[in-house]
């Protein structure tokens, strides 16, 4: 992918995709609704918005998940989500911080991490001084020090420190 964003190092196949992506950093909204004047960063968002004026129904997903992971057989609605999921199996972390060398599997994680170097919104754990860019991640991290497990399965009483772990656990009761 030859087109790289200077702000977050995300790469794109086309210059138009990079230009569209740059709007997420500049907050530029070049696509304006002729009906009400509301502006959007992407043309697809404007198209979706215009349906509110025309009364046209939005596109509803059928629920079909035709993209399968060859390792775990989990299915996805689109190929980009499958590609991102595959990184969990390969362990590949193609997005590297130029400041400290830490690598990430997703560009959004690298972007969030870079805030720490800029000092923007850095939050620190009082126990280990690890830094975070959002309070929910810090709160979840703090559970590693307290041992607290606030998410409890109503079927068997087993507790978890993360809601995602409880959600995954509940599948055993459904037989999934």
Automatic annotation (TrEMBL):
A GO MF label = DNA-binding transcription activator activity, RNA polymerase II-specific
Q: Which SUPFAM superfamilies match?
A: beta-beta-alpha zinc fingers (SSF57667)
According to its UniProt record, where is this protein mainly located?
Answer: nucleus
Could you list this entry's UniProt keywords, alphabetically sorted.
DNA-binding, Metal-binding, Nucleus, Repeat, Transcription, Transcription regulation, Zinc, Zinc-finger
Subcellular location as annotated:
Nucleus
* Ranges annotated as spanning the membrane: none
Q: Which InterPro entries match?
A: Znf_C2H2_sf, Znf_C2H2_type
Cellular compartments per GO CC: nucleus
Q: Per the database record, which ranges form the C2H2-type domain?
A: 3-30, 31-58, 67-94, 95-122, 123-150, 151-176
Q: Which domain of life is it from?
A: Eukaryota
Pfam families tied to this protein: zf-C2H2
Tell me, in a sentence or two, what this protein's role is. Answer: May be involved in transcriptional regulation.
The record's family statement is: Belongs to the krueppel C2H2-type zinc-finger protein family.
Q: What is this protein called?
A: Putative zinc finger protein 724
The source organism is Buceros rhinoceros silvestris
